[in-house]
Each structure stands twice: as structure tokens, then as C-alpha cells.
UniProtKB/TrEMBL annotation:
PANTHER family: PROLYL ENDOPEPTIDASE-LIKE (PTHR11757:SF19), PROTEASE FAMILY S9A OLIGOPEPTIDASE (PTHR11757). It is found in: Cytoplasm, Cytosol. Residues 510-735 form the Peptidase S9 prolyl oligopeptidase catalytic domain. SUPFAM superfamilies: alpha/beta-Hydrolases (SSF53474), Peptidase/esterase 'gauge' domain (SSF50993). Residues 99-447 form the Peptidase S9A N-terminal domain. It holds the Pfam family Peptidase_S9_N. It is an enzyme of class 3 (hydrolase). This is Prolyl endopeptidase. Keywords: Cytoplasm, Hydrolase, Protease, Serine protease. Serine peptidase whose precise substrate specificity remains unclear. Does not cleave peptides after a arginine or lysine residue. Regulates trans-Golgi network morphology and sorting by regulating the membrane binding of the AP-1 complex. May play a role in the regulation of synaptic vesicle exocytosis. The keyword Cell membrane does not apply. One of its GO terms (biological process) is proteolysis. Its EC number is 3.4.21.-.
Amino acid sequence: MKVGASRVGLQNLLQGLSFSVKYYSKHNHLQTACLYSKTKPPKCHILDCSGSTCTHQTLPPGSILPWRFFSCKKGTKIPSKRKQNTSIITSELLYEDLLKSEQENWNDISARYKAMTKRIKEKLEELHKCMFNSGSPRIRFGENVYFEENGCIFLSKADDDEENADILFSMEDLGFSDSFVQRIRISPDQRHMAIGLKSENSEEATCVVMKIGHFPVLEKVIPSVFSFEWATNDVLYYTSLKNLRCQNVFMTTFTHQKHTELVYTEQDARFFVDINCTKDRRFLTINSNSKTTSEVWLVDCRHPFKLPALVQARTKGLIYHIEHRNDELYILTTYGEPAEYKLMKAPVTSSGMENWQLVCALEEKTKLVDLEMFSDHCIMFLKNAGHLYLNVISFVSHSVQSIKLPTWACEFELESHPEHTTSTCYFQLTSPVHPPKRFAYSFKENNLIEQAVQEVPIITNCHTTRLLAKSKDETLVPITVFHNMNSKELHRKPLLVHVYGAYGIDLNMSFKEEKLMLIEEGWILAYCHVRGGGELGLSWHKDGCHRNKLKGLHDLKACIVLLHQLGFSQPKYTAVAAASAGGVLAGALCNTDPELIRAVVLRAPFVDVLNTMMKTHLPLTIEEQEEWGNPLADEKCMEYIKSYCPYQNIKTQCYPSVFITAYENDQRVPVSGVLRYVQKLRKAALDHGSRTSKKGNCIPNIILDIQANGSHCDPSWEDSLDEVARHLAFLNKELEVCNLQHHTKSCQ
């Protein structure tokens, strides 16, 4: 059910309506599938055919366009225009000097990691080659199958060998050789194809519309597009993205009298708009969502020029998403008690919430990951107590069948099902150390089928343990632990702790080659599902956002303490890894409990919450107030943010070593803020080192690696390889993990 999306498909929307712009990173099923494609994929190889659009799991608040102001203090008087211009120039020069200084510093430091980085990179490349190639995602329409490989769009027959597939066109031929395919939508009559193309250094995509035939023709190029859907054979609806905000919906026609017109505009800056198509192609849904409230308008695909019809006026705190079947709307909503997702329905002609009838409710502390609608069934993809299972709802027998999935599975990776009349639902299961394995649920047979595929060399002696840590307020916090069953003396093994805890988003637990490599090398991997994330439903997020942010920090501390108590490593062999908004909790832990960890690796970290949330002129600040609060309007909120903000709480003390990767073109976590954080952290660590003379006292390494290319979105496997290898080399040095063993697995 790729519906009701604020800026994402339903899967990520259910994780808290958290993204201001969605992108698919390695945790997305489409990109992960492409990691195993038969031909080596190009940059950030993503084919989104499921109704979602390109995003990770993890976008921080207060994101801005490239920001060249290094210093902006609260309470500063606004100078005259001449003085203001001088101040801007001074700030820009200061920023450029610091940027240059950090780049030079990294060039000097990087030499010490060069040899180990090379060895790790070679191991990862070897492991990557061993992965089974299952091909890139396919879109099936009747007897035709469309797919993308290496920047080319192919067409083949469903029953034919794909080696005989025809190339329709290539991105290079269209003049977009530096872009990757983000999204594809095919018109109902298969005469037009709309393709979303995106570069790695920008979050704005370009929509290219092609007329398909023996000689494909470029019909239209639409810049700065976020989402798009076909209403009919020749009417396309799309949303425009500007300054990380999406508030306008347009309609464009490809008839003899071509024209484009504005259909809908969202006036509230807290809301983000996207469009989706119901599974039966009966309606387009215009979805306007904030972090806590939804409003959906319907476009009748039989009458695409009529004005959109409102389903239910926005009501504060009410979230809902729409699907359609047999003249009834199926509504996934938080309406009623408890305020968790439940499936309801109502007639199309009487869609107000007073007419909503309950179809299926979820058990307590159950996370709804996704919902897929079919003609006579729907499937709910669920998480409960760390385990995955399905609820299969039959609209014919009015029954619900619950199916528990293999215990090793940690993540769903859903496949596209454009034909709602299909009798089989396909999906993949994965974990950080298990490559995606394909499964199918047959509605005819009412059973789960494990797809027979060529075996991949995966580790078989990896043990998965699920724990519960008691937090400061007695709340039990789930932890998922992976370690090699052959490892002895686990208290001497290196431990890598993962944390996020924001926006209602689950920790990314999809497969990554580096995680498998670490397990083989004897590492312990721990995933702490702290409050603020979405692992236990919407209430789990609510209990860790706004003025509950400190609960996530308490959860993280409790998890690490429990791991050590149970004999999983010890502080001097423990590191924390976090990205984006996960940097808030990781950075806060460095301030409050630095003795628990030896090292930290951060990617594009959000570490200056207060200063960011004070700047309302930034495009995302107002939208993010529902997650972090509004310090300008509420003094208590300001003080609360100050109490945990990593930048605000740096002090002269012993810190763990920190490696940060930032991106010069990052529109969401500007490198200027990261520079401020690193400068202040490094000074505090140096001051502490100079004031203490304890034997063995050492000054931690505070390293900032600023990448000239890339953005906040996760890069492709190829482009991330160097970054991952550098991070692991840093951790091995800091945790004194020596003599990395050669792989015991070999390609079959």
C-alpha cells in the first residue's frame, strides 16, 4: 500500500512521517536488490517501481540549502546593510579557512589509515563479488517486463529470456549520463514512460517523459520534481520540490493540445505534499502530511480534469493513508484508541471519519512496516518484539491469518506488485548479516513459499540474540545482538553499537557486506532500538521526541551497560556508529558517559539542535518543530534542548575518539555546523589533556573527513566503499583490533 505518503512510500511513512524528502539508501529493498544485479550497477542504482520515491532512513531536522555562514549567535543585533555585507564576507572567509584547514588536517592524518583502509576495501570487494546476482527490480505489465540496468531501460517478454531484452533507451542518449534512475512510472496503455533522474549531489530530481515505441521519443523534461503518477494514458500529475519543500501539485497532458496547470497548493509550511496511485489505479491520492497530521485529496482517474475531492479534513493528531477496492476506501489510520495504526474502511461517497469502520486492529507494541493491497486480500507486514510476521486479511472470507517469519529475519524488503489482481505477493527478508532471501505468499494455496535461489556464501555460525535493557524509568528497551558462535572470551571482542532514535524510524537492519565481514572477524554488533525510533509502534516514537528526547539517551546508556554486564565486550573495545539524527544521541552520550565507549563514527551527524531550531528562515525548521520543539516560542523547550544538545554540552573532559564524515554539498546537515562542533570538541579534549598528567592519559583523535562530492542521501555501494573502509580502519586502530584475519569464506 504505497499510499498516503508525505514524502515517502508507506513503509517509511509508517515510521513516523519523518522525512522532509525521502531517499532510498542501502536499507531500501530496491537498492539492495540492485546490489546483486547481474551487471555492476551505476551510481546509486535505484529503480523505484513500488510507489515510493528516492530516501534513508534518516534525515535530520533544520536542513538548509548550502549555507556559507559559520557564526550566527542568538541575540546579535542586525547591523546596517553595509555592516551586514561585511559580516557576511567575514563569515564566509572564516568558513572557507576552517574548511581548508580541516581538509589539510585530514590529508595529513589519512596516511596513518591508508594501509589498513586498502586491506579492508579489498576484503569488502571480494565479499561483494561473492554475492548472488538476483537482478535489478522488474516492473511487469501484462506480458511485458520493464527493468533498468547500467543506466539503460530494457523491455522483455514475461516468458522470454532477459538476454533477449530490447534496449528502449539509455540515460546517456538522453543527456543524463551523470544521473541515476530513481523512479519509473508507465502509463496504463504503456505508450508513455515517466522516469525520475537524480544526481548524487542534489536532492531535486528531473522527470523525463518518453513516448515508447520502435523509436522512443523524448516528449518532456520537467525539472525539480519529487513524485509523479499517471492518471490516464496521457495525463501525468507531479509535485515540485524547492528548497527541500514540496507544496505544489501540477497536471500536464500529452494530448494534441498539451498544457500544464497547477492543481493543488499547500499553504502550511509544516506539511509536505506528494502523490500516489491506488493499487487498482482508480484514484490518485494527493497526500499532505506533517509529522503528526494528514489530509488526503482524491483525483478520479476516470475524470482526471475534475477538481480533487477531500477525503477527511485535517484534524490535529490524525494520520491516515488511503487505498481503494470495490468502491470502498481502505484507510490506514491512527483514528481512535489506542493511537496506533489500524485498518478501517468507508464508502467513497461518504469518506468522512464518522463513517470509518474498523477492519483490523494491531496488537499492543506492534510496528506496522507496510501494507500491500490486492483485489481480494491485503497483507500487513509487521514487527513485534523484534520478530517479523504477516497478517493476511481475506476480504472474501473476512478472516485474518497470522504468519510468523524466520527468526533470523530483521527487515522486510518489499517488491513491486503493479497488478493488484495477482495471486502471489513477493517480498524479501534480510538482516545485517543475511543477504536478502526471497519469499512468496500464495493467496490460492494460503501458504508461505521460500523461493529456491542459488546459494550465496553467507555465514552460518552467526548467533542472533534479542535482549531487553531496563532504562532509567524502568522501560524495557530492545537490543538485537549478532556475534560469531565460534568466538571465545566475548568480553575481549570489539563491540560496535548502532543507534538512531528519531522520527519514528527503525534502525537500518538490512544487509551490508561490512557487517558480515565484521562478524567473520570476531566483532559483536549491537542494534539498540531506543525510544524516538519506531520499533514498537507510534507510541515508542512519541515517548522519545520533543520533551522526551532524554529518554532515548537514557535508553542508549542502559543498553551499553547491559551489554557489558552480560560479557559482550568492555568499554575500551566498544564503539558507537550513528548517522544523521542518530548523531544527537551518540554525541550526547559522549558528553554524559564518555567512559562507556572508546570510539565513535558519525556520518553527516546532526549535532547542533538548538542553533538549527532557532533559525526559522531555514526551509525545514518549522516542519521539524513537531520532532524537536520550538525553542523560540517556548523558553522551557529551549532549556530542554540545551540539556541534551551535543554541541551545547561539550565540556573539558576525557572524550572518546571521533571520526566524522561530512559532505560539502549536504543540504540537511550543513558542513558549517559540523565544523563548529569539531572545533569545540577538539578544543575541549586538548584542554583536558593539557590539564591532566595521569599516566597513560592520551588525547583522543577528533577527525573530520569532508567529502567534496556526495550529499545527505546514502551513496551507492561503489561510492561508499572508500568511506566504509576508512571508518573501519579508524575503529580497528582505536580499539586496537590487530591482525585482521583473511576471509574463511570463498566464492563458490
